[in-house]
Task: inverse folding
């Protein structure tokens, strides 16, 4: 098991130690994160376009890759999980793997997190508590309806707007500052 | 829900070639694995499936070759997975729009693969407009684009019919008021031309002067009186119509099935009872007072203007719509947006304040006061900046728009004065003319805003009527009978799911004997509460039947049946009112003695007697002023007051501590004697007195028998009970160690 302690964790563990006098165990020991690396895990794509992983002598035929920070850092701290939501292990960074494996894992992320980026806002019309959007996205031209309020259009970071439509489809404006004035005004009304 | 989309000719040919002539299901699978939107479809035939895209069958498979077809919801998309000899695989991928459709299709594929009868009961409503396919506003059935305005108004007219007398009176008052308003300038002209500034050659007439003054004053008084009459009558009519609508919605909501009520969030229904009906009231009031009045004024004043002098009339009327439109544009696109932004910042600051103040203990515990002050400062200055910006602009724009609206009048004065100098017009005429001109602007500016609120009111009308016209899912049989329940309940091959593609109960069959106590046991999600909902007929089964004393539950009058069932749920709901009223809820004509008897049986009497106000104690909202155990005992008293032959206990004691549970269990034991009882409990020890236990596992009856029989069987029940015992032993040990 590998357990390196990041700077943050050290500070946190020191604080914990200060509180619980004499309990020596650090937080990273308590968290017990199992990191998958290119040395201990072997990923492959199955015939059915799914991801499988072999860790040690155990093969998991179907696993899913979840992001810890899908909006702020998609390539770091990925969790490899089974369909029963059991964690096989974590990947600290995609950089730790060969380009080929990193690409395979990224492909899986693309499948799990389908969030087209809005490249151009053509029109946003607001009516009766719903807004009707027409946009050009990385997945093509998209028209969708968003229910007002309830956090359906929210800033997940100061500049990144996540829009969820009435069906549950997600769209993202990666940088609000890159919108033109006209686009910004249309989008702003729905926030 | 549409599960069989029509394919374009080329796609259809490819599909027929791939799966055979009979296409049973066809749903869009509009997303490639690489993340591009496609025009693909998943087509299911008699025993083959195929993925069709652009007139080609890109993949074909035999349904029976795979198993476990399953929809996996991912983030912002879904995939349909299946398993075959080589392992799991992704069949197709789609956006969330079609997720529910894939739920149905997966269920159908599973049934086909296992060679079972297909059990999907496709009764979910399509959330898109039947006419244009556009997205629907929640609760409405037609989208704003397709809604026939005439149709909506017609519905409203039918409801308004009952108040036609008052309505007519209001309309008459309104017409009279507008006639008087229009007569004003005419008398002004007489006043000026007859007395103050008579045309050359005429002497001033004091008679005319007095007549004109009297008419002006009289007109003013009568006009004001009529305005009062009009407002009173219309407020009366519109409130009455809205009250009628509220009553209709409320009564309908009461009679609709639990299925409808839970699918529509309670808040939404409340909104329709209050918000939407109020919007309709505003519409009627606005329509019958302002709108028609403004319209009469506009038309009459325009006619009078043109008849007085058509050239001047053009000068006044031509710029009017342009100016009014500019006014609206500035409001809608500049000021409204600015104010909107200001409100939003205000909202954000407000919720931040609420957040921090209610979490002040946490803030202090972590010593983050400084950080929070800094954050509040940012919000505060943001709000101040937004307010300054919008107020400044408003204060600049409002006078300008007002000035623009008045501009036509100055032109009239300019041209009019020239005409007077040329002797084409006299002063009286000019004054009359400019007064009529000023009457035109108000209605025009007002009408610019009309479409928006009429449209909003139309949506309200549709939402209100969509409840009123809703058909209850659980229908009363035509010849429903009253049946005195003895207590035998039989489930016969019951299939049921809240969404039929996710069956919760699958082929449940067992009989509860008269007077028997049955304990329902199983993991959460195994269908225990659903079984109870079906026994109370809050929902109708999809397949199979439920018999009470041999009579099909569908043939018994619903109200009569439910009055004979006593229900105690985990979450007790008590109404605002006295304890007496609450216990008496199940039998409003019960005597005080009966109430006390029920309370004694439920072990509630002692604590009630200890309260200063006894049975007259006023309970706050949901009984928040008494403890959970006390609330539960009141609920039991309420359930048994009516002496119901059938008792349903859904986790009645699980939220209570062990000691209170003991008290209530003892009360329940007394109540259950000789009564058919169905009880659900997480703590299995609660069910030790049950005559038989029914163990549900994934919607099927897995085991039936007494506690001893099931323990001996060493099946699911045994596992559950040993797990719970070990847990409590561990807890006991830990407690002892402390």
Result:
């Amino acid at each position: 098991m590998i357990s390196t302690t990041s700077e943050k964790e050290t500070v946190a563990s020191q604080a914990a130690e200060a509180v619980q006098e004499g309990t020596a165990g650090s937080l990273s020991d308590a968290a017990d994160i199992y990191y998958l690396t290119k040395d201990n895990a072997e990923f492959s794509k199955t015939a059915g376009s799914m991801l499988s992983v072999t860790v040690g002598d155990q093969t998991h035929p179907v696993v899913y890759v979840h992001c810890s920070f899908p909006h702020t850092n998609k390539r770091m701290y990925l969790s490899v999980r089974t369909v029963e939501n059991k964690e096989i292990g974590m990947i600290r960074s995609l950089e730790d793997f060969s380009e080929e494996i990193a690409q395979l894992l990224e492909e899986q992320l693309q499948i799990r997190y389908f969030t087209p980026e809005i490249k151009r806002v053509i029109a946003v019309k607001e009516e009766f508590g719903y807004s009707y959007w027409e946009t050009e996205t990385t997945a093509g031209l998209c028209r969708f309806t968003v229910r007002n309020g309830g956090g359906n259009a929210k800033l997940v970071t100061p500049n990144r707007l996540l829009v969820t439509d009435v069906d549950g489809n997600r769209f993202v404006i990666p940088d609000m500052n890159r919108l033109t004035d006209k686009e910004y005004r249309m989008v702003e009304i729905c926030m | 829900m549409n599960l069989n989309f029509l394919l374009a000719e080329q796609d259809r040919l490819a599909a027929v070639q791939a799966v055979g002539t009979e296409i049973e299901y066809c749903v869009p699978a509009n997303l490639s694995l690489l993340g591009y939107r496609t025009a693909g479809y998943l087509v299911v035939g008699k025993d083959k499936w195929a993925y069709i895209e652009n007139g080609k069958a890109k993949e074909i498979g035999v349904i029976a070759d795979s198993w476990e077809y399953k929809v996996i919801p991912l983030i912002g998309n879904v995939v349909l997975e299946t398993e075959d000899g080589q392992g799991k695989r992704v069949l197709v991928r789609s956006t969330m729009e079609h997720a529910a459709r894939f739920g149905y299709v997966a269920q159908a594929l599973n049934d086909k693969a296992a060679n079972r009868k297909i059990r999907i009961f496709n009764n979910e409503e399509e959330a898109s407009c039947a006419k244009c396919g556009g997205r629907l506003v929640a609760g409405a059935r037609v989208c704003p684009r397709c809604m026939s305005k005439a149709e909506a108004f017609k519905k409203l007219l039918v409801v308004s019919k009952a108040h036609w007398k008052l309505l007519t009176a209001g309309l008459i008052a309104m017409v009279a008021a507008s006639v008087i308003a229009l007569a004003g300038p005419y008398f002004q002209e007489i006043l000026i031309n007859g007395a103050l500034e008579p045309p050359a050659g005429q002497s001033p007439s004091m008679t005319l002067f007095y007549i004109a003054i009297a008419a002006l004053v009289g007109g003013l008084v009568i006009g004001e009186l009529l305005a009062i009459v009009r407002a009173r009558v219309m407020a009366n009519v519109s409130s009455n119509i809205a009250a009628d609508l509220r009553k209709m919605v409320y009564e309908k909501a009461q009679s609709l099935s639990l299925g409808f009520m839970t699918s529509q969030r309670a808040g939404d229904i409340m909104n329709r009872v209050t918000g939407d009906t109020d919007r309709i009231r505003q519409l009627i009031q606005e329509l019958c007072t302002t709108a028609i009045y403004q319209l009469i004024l506009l038309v009459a004043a325009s006619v009078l203007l043109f008849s007085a002098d058509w050239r001047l009339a053009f000068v006044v009327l031509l710029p009017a719509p342009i100016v009014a439109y500019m006014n609206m544009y500035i409001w809608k696109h500049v000021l409204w947006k600015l104010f909107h932004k200001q409100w939003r910042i205000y909202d954000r600051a407000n919720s931040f304040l609420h957040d921090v103040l209610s979490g002040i203990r946490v803030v202090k515990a972590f010593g983050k006061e400084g950080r929070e002050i800094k954050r509040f400062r940012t919000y505060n200055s943001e709000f101040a900046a937004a307010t300054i910006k919008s107020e400044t602009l408003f204060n600049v724009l409002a006078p300008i728009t007002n000035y623009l609206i008045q501009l036509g009048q100055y032109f009239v004065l300019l041209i009019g004065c020239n005409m007077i100098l040329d002797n084409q017009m006299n002063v009286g005429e000019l004054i009359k003319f400019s007064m009529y001109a000023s009457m035109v602007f108000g209605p025009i500016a007002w009408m610019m805003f009309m479409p928006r609120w009429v449209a909003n009111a139309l949506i309200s009308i549709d939402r209100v009527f969509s409840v009123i016209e809703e058909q209850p899912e659980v229908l009363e049989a035509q010849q429903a009978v009253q049946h005195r329940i003895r207590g035998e309940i039989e489930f016969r091959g019951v299939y049921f799911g809240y969404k039929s593609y996710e069956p919760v109960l699958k082929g449940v069959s067992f009989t509860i004997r008269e007077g028997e106590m049955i304990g329902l046991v199983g993991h959460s999600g195994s269908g225990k509460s659903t079984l109870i909902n079906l026994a109370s007929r809050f929902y109708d089964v999809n397949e199979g039947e439920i018999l009470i004393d041999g009579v099909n539950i569908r043939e018994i009058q619903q109200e009569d049946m439910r009055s004979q069932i006593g229900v105690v749920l985990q979450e007790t709901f008590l109404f605002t009112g006295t304890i007496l009223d609450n216990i008496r809820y199940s039998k409003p004509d019960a005597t005080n003695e009966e109430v006390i008897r029920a309370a004694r049986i439920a072990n509630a009497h002692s604590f009630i007697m200890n309260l200063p106000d006894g049975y007259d104690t006023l309970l706050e909202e949901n009984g928040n002023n008494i403890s959970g155990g006390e609330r539960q005992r009141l609920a039991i008293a309420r359930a048994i007051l009516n002496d119901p032959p059938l008792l349903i206990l859904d986790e009645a004691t699980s939220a209570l501590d062990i000691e209170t549970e003991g008290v209530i269990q003892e009360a329940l034991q007394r109540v259950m004697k000789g009564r058919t009882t169905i009880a659900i409990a997480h703590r299995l020890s609660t069910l030790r007195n049950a005559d038989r236990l029914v163990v549900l596992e994934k919607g099927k009856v897995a085991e039936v028998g007494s506690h001893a029989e099931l323990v001996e069987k060493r099946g699911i029940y045994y596992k559950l009970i040993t797990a719970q015992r070990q847990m409590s032993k561990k807890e006991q040990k830990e407690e002892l160690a402390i």
